[in-house]
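Blinded run. Sample ID left blank on purpose so nobody reads anything into the name before looking at the predicted structure. Input follows.
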Amino acid sequence: MTTGYRPEIIQRAFVDFIGSRLHPFWSLTTPKLRLVARQVLNEELIALQFEVNQAFKRQAFSVNDSWQGGQYIHLTVPIDGINHQRSYSLVGLFPQPKNLYDAIFTKNLVDNSVANDADHNTEDRASNTLHATVTIAIKSQGLVSDYLTKQAPLGTVFNSSIPSGDFTLADTSEKLAKQKSGLPHSEQSPLLFVAGGSGITPMLGLITQALTQRRHVTLLYYYRSTLARAPFQAYWQRLATTYPNFAYYMVNTTDPSSYLAGTRHLDAATLSLLPLSLAESMIFACGSSSLLAGLYRALDTLSPPIDKESLTNKHSLRDNVIIEHFGTALTDADMNVGTGESSKTADIAAQTVYLRGRQQQFSSRTTLLLGAEQAGIRLSYGCRQGICQLCRCQKISGVVKNIQTGKVSSNGYESIQTCINIPMTEVILDV
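Blinded prediction complete.
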C-alpha cells in the first residue's frame, strides 16, 4: 500500500553540515547573514548591512511577497565560544529603496569619521549586494552590540531568523476593520509615527512603505543629538520633497527652539498642533516608557468623553496605538498609566501559575517571569522588556494582562511573553 512517504536518501541536515565546512555562508535550511558594510550615522546609531543567503531569501519571501517595514530579526552572535541571541529592528530589507540606501551609506549624508578602518570601501562592497541585503541600526552598547559595531570583521557570518513581528502596516487594516466597519480600502486612515531616540529605526521601513502605498504620513520624532547629526535628517527632507502627503516634526529635547508647544515633552498640546485627525489616524509608537506614557496621557486627554448613561463614545484614542517598546523596564506605575486606575501590582491578588512540563507551580501578583524568579524558578528570558521574544511560551489556559498595552488575553491557548504579562486568573503554561 502506497503511503506517499518518500524518505530522503541524503538528509538536508547532513548536506548542511558538510556545506558549512566548505563555506559557512551556505545552507539549505538555515537563514544566514554576512556582514558587508558598517556606517556611523550619528553619535548613537551605527548601521550594519548584511548580505543574505539563499535559505533566508527562500524562507522570508514567496514570489509575490515584499518585505514588511517594522519587523525584526533574531541574530545569533558567537562571542568567545558562547552564542548570544539578540533581536534587532530592520531598517531596510531587499529590495531596498535606493534613496534609503543613500541616506544610510552615502558618505556625504552621514559622518563616518569614526568608522572602522576596515570599512574604507564600505560603499563599493555594499553596492554590489544592494539587491539582497538586510540593514539594521543599533547603539554601540552592551556586549553583543559593541561586538557587532566595533569588533566583528567584515565578512563574518551569523545565523539569523527570518523577519517577524506585528509592528507593521498590515496590522492597521485588521485593527481599523474592527473599529470602523465598512471603511473602503482606498480611504485608509492617516498614519502618525511617534518615535524617540533609536526608536526611529523601525520607522524607516514603515514610513517608506506607507508612502509607496500613498498613505498620508506624519512623523513626530524626539531626539537629543544636534540637528546636523540627527538620524536620517536628509532622508526625511527628501521624502517631504518627493511626497506632498508626508510631514515630519523633529523635537530636539535640548533645543527649546524646536519645541512644538513650548515643552520638550510629548503632551496633548503638541498632538493638537499636528495637521491630522487623531480620531481617524492609526498611531505607531516606539521609544522609552516615559515617551509612551506621555503619549497615552495626551491621547486620554484628547479622547471624547464617555456618556455613562448611553455608553456612547466608548472609543478611546489610545485604541488607535500600535507600540514597539524598548528601553528601561516599565515600573509598577507605568502599568496603569493613563487608565485612571490607581491599583499597583501590590493590590493585585496573587494567582497560581502551573508549569505543566516541569510539574512546578508558584504564586505571582507581578509578571510571570518575575513571579517565577521570586519563587526560585528559572525561566528563559532575554531583554526583560518585551522586545527579544526569548521568554515567549505557550499559555494553555488562564487570563493574563499585558502591562505595556493593557490588553487582557482570552482564556484559551495562545503564545505570550512572560516578562510583560501578569496573571489575572489561575494560569497554566506549557513550560
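Unblinding after everyone has recorded impressions. Residues 107-130, 181-186, 326-347 have pLDDT under 50 and may be disordered.
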